[in-house]
Amino acid sequence: MISAATAAVAQTGFGSATWQDFGFDYLITTGLATINTFNYFKVYPNPTSDKININNLQLKNNGIISIYDLFGKSVYSQVQNKLNTSATIDMSNFEQGVYTITQ
Asked: d(Cα 18, Cα 79) in Å, to the nearest integer?
């Protein structure tokens, strides 16, 4: 932080005349004990207006890949071979927006 009253900081003897450390420490957490990013599938390019590639698939739920809009409405669903570790989806007909993908 930059002190607005540099003279007051210098008079109290706390650090330099321009910087003051107030001792606030921040811890940002996800709430998860462990994050294993190596198990997650990868989607690229992001953003896109054409096709997306999905790699590192570990298909469950009968091999279904689903895409949802922000309201939770399913806008795409396709059954994939469970042995596939990658897929390509054409999103050129999707409306511009933010989507979530589940496998």
From this structure: 62
Spell out the residues 6+ positions from residue 90 whose beta carbon is closer than 8 angstroms to its own: 50, 51
Handedness of CA 47, 51, 54, 55 (dihedral sign): negative
**Distance spanning both ends of the chain, measured CA to CA:** 45
pLDDT tens for each residue of 30-47: 666 666 655 677 888 988
Rounded to two decimals, what is the model's pTM? 0.59
The pairing of strands 42-44 and 86-90 is: unpaired
Work out the angle at residue 90's Cα, subtended by the Cα atoms of residues 40 and 81, and round it to the nearest 5 degrees.
Answer: 55
> Which domains are assigned to the chain?
6-102 (2.60.40)
